[in-house]
Amino acid sequence: MADRVLVTADDLEHAVRINAQLEATGFDTxxxxxxxxxxxxxxxxxxxxxxxxxxxxxxxTARLLVAARERAVSTLGLVETTEPDPKDLAAAIGLTAYxxxxxxxxxxxxxxxxxxxxxxLQQRTGIIGESPAIQEVLVKIExxxxxxxxxxxxxxxxxxxxxxxxxxxxxxxxxxxPFITVNCAALPETLLESELFGHEKGAFTGAxxxxxxxxxxxNGGTIFLxxxxxxxxxxxxKLLRVLEDxxxxxxxxxxxxxxxxxxxxxxxxxxxxxAAVGDFxxxxxxxxxxxxxxxxxxxxxxxxxxxxxxxxxxxxxKQHDRLFHGITPEALQILVDADWPGNVRQLRNLIESMVVLxxxxxxxxxxxxxxxxERGRGLPVRLxxxxxxxxxxxxxxxFRSLVELKLQVEELRRRLEDRPAPHRVEVIEVEQRxxxxxxxxxxxxxxxxxxxxxxxxxxxxxxxxxVERAAIEAALQQSRxxxxxxAEVLQIGERTLYRKLKQYAIDx
Length: 508
Prior knowledge:
The chain is an alpha/beta fold. It has four domains: 4-125, Response regulator (Rossmann fold); 145-294, P-loop containing nucleotide triphosphate hydrolases (Rossmann fold, 3-Layer(aba) Sandwich), CATH 3.40.50.300; 299-374, Helicase, Ruva Protein, domain 3; 425-503, Arc Repressor Mutant, subunit A, CATH 1.10.10. It is 46% helix and 13% strand. It has 20 helices and 16 strands. The termini are far apart.
């Protein structure tokens, strides 16, 4: 089946030439003369690409591009040379790509082919999104797939790391060979080694027969090591050998086994940071990090949420055989404003529950769980058609937010009025909180709590990092260089303290 392309006739001269060239190249093309006809064609024909030849500033174009985005149709706009910043214009109106006029028809065909192939890739892999971050991920997948180098995929839980691994495999020359997945966090250390490398009969109690490991099963194909950062140190050493020469020994075996396998590893934490504090082997990290793909969390690509929501609704309504009408604008805005700590996985699971449970065959604001509504970062907005109960909760939230803001402003004003003169040095006592701090991995700019007995010299103009360093030095002095006691004074983990000592080059 030929790829379908729609061409708007706003710039008739360009449209005729482009349409003819696309048709000659093998595309199934169609020209539309009005925005209404174009929107209808987008809804009914569901083209793979839409070429907008002109009138980019008109309201009809904006509505047309919205309709295209709702159906994940790639859009290519032809921008006038008089446009001061065509890139900003393309981003503002939501074009997938743009070319500046005058443009050669052959160049348009090449760009259309690229966009269509990209759309096919998204449909094939399930990696959905038009945001620059996701487009960058797709470009990297296309670049990495043909080679056999090891790939490290970093991203929070629920961002779709396994989809990236599968996409790399599916686009590679190994696509017809096995794709084997191993969750390194789900298996205890005693079993992980046997699972990865297999074992010989009698290697340990219960080893009644020889068993092939995942690396042998993946021979010729790809092995995906999910949550590789949770791997035990002893297993890390053995994995390092496999990455170096693609050979290993079964548990209890004496003969080396050589395999031809591509390794794709994934982690939900920074292996570089883990290696810096000794939680992960440096040499293994560098072996894994040959090619790196970073998957952004959903909160960093909120523009993709409407597209994901509509895609999930369509898929899940079909899966559960539900007649479903979609989602109201108010409900969609709530989903866009939410934090999504569980990322795409959390969003999909929520959509599934609402598709099954929504009483009206449509997701409304009242159908969204309260914790999702309250977790949104946007300013509270009056919802159209809200019940009195919902409106009351909104007013309560607005009032509480305004009170908190007023208190913060008053506190800031008081501090500014009490600010010491420049170059004055003060001793600041940091009071002990009634509730102790949880030991977390603090970032470089996060304030570090200190005990009531610690005293920190503060000078006007000091950065937060300077204050943090001073607090650490005070705690070390108080504990006479004992790291464990200093960490207790600071109420942070000992590992975090070690990292801070290296970061600030503090000599104990």
